[in-house]
Amino acid sequence: MNNIINKFERFIEYMMALALAVMFSAVFINVVLRYLFGSGIAASEELSRLLFVWLIFMGATLAVGRNSHIGFDLVQRKLPKKLRLICAIISHSLMLYALYLFLEGSWKQYNIGWNINSTVMKYPLAFMYSTGLFASIGMGFYIIRNLILIILKSENSHIPGNTKISPEQLKENN
To answer: What stretches pass through the bilayer (predicted)?
Structure first.
């Protein structure tokens, strides 16, 4: 299972790099054309905006999977282990509920977006709103996975407030 997840994450990383390269190229070419010839490519801004939104949602999904989002765990660090576990289960449940609401709203916007085209490129705006579907399903997967690991009391679970000591830190302390 982890092998499939790693391959999917690697694919997302490549897609993010491609999106960033296309955005950079489109904006750079547009700037050069406007500076030298006084006109640019109208679709450049719209393409960059679409790719930027996808880039952000793909990155946010990967950050959830890697527990890389900024967190405030000062209070949780002070709690006993059992209360920390309960807080983690409650917070994961609340995040899943929020992602359900996000998925529901994104699905409605996605369906509406098939009937509305973008101004310049004329692509259905459903492509833009599908970022919410991707993010809510992807983040939901990672949160459900971690919640299961927490309930099973696995060492691979991530519980805010728990400190894991790396092998390098163990050597320094001895």
So the answer is: 12-35, 47-65, 85-103, 123-144
